[in-house]
Amino acid sequence: MKSLILVVFLFFEMTVFCFTSTFVSWEMPELEEYRSLIERLVGKPVKGTYHLIIASSTGEFMELSGLGYWFVAAAENSTIIVQPLSLVPNLTQTVAHEMCHLFLRQYRLPYWLEEGIVCYVTGEWIGRKELILDRVESLDYSEMDFMTYRSYSFSCWVEVSRILRVSTFGELVVAFGEGIDEQVE
User: Beta strand pairing status for 20-25 and 79-82?
Assistant: First the structure.
């Protein structure tokens, strides 16, 4: 239902690529649950508005994002690109996932930790099982195929869930972060 509400708010814009474009914000009611969880985790208000592009085809998604056809979405700078809606199982969760990535990048965390935190916030792996990969912190996700990346994402979530039982987000930033971007307060 939340996905349907989010789609209703989409503002359609035709371009050379024929994609749909709109803006999404942490202030949207559909994202309240995710915003609340990430705010509790990081201990501060989460704000931001992002440009959302919904590709009209998988080929267009690949062209716009530079990623493989098996990815559902991508995020860079303040833009989120998603596959055509028929290929996105849960638009609200997918958008929240990508918005979390964009928010967390200010902390310059290693990707495995960022992915694990994002999956922890969105809850997308709860009740699901995948192969658990060893030493996710040493793996290069950029060269993985679809099934390996699924296992990688799941493994990141498992590891971060374990770490968050004994450490705070602030402790993770100190231990793993490479510094905070200057624009962050």
Answer: unpaired
What amino acid is encoded at 76 in this protein?
A: E
Tens-digit pLDDT profile for residues 38-81: 999 999 999 999 999 999 999 999 999 999 999 999 999 999 99
> With contact defined as beta carbons under 8 Å apart, do 133 and 152 qualify?
yes
The CA-based angle 74-75-78, given to 5 degrees, is 150
Q: Residue 135 and residue 71: Cα distance in Å, rounded?
A: 23
- pTM for this prediction: 0.87
Q: Which residue has the tokens 């699901």?
A: 128
Give the list of residues 6+ apart from residue 74 with CB closer than 8 angstroms, or none.
61, 64, 65, 66, 67, 80, 81, 98
| DSSP-assigned beta bridge partners for residue 24 | 50
3-class DSSP state of 182: coil
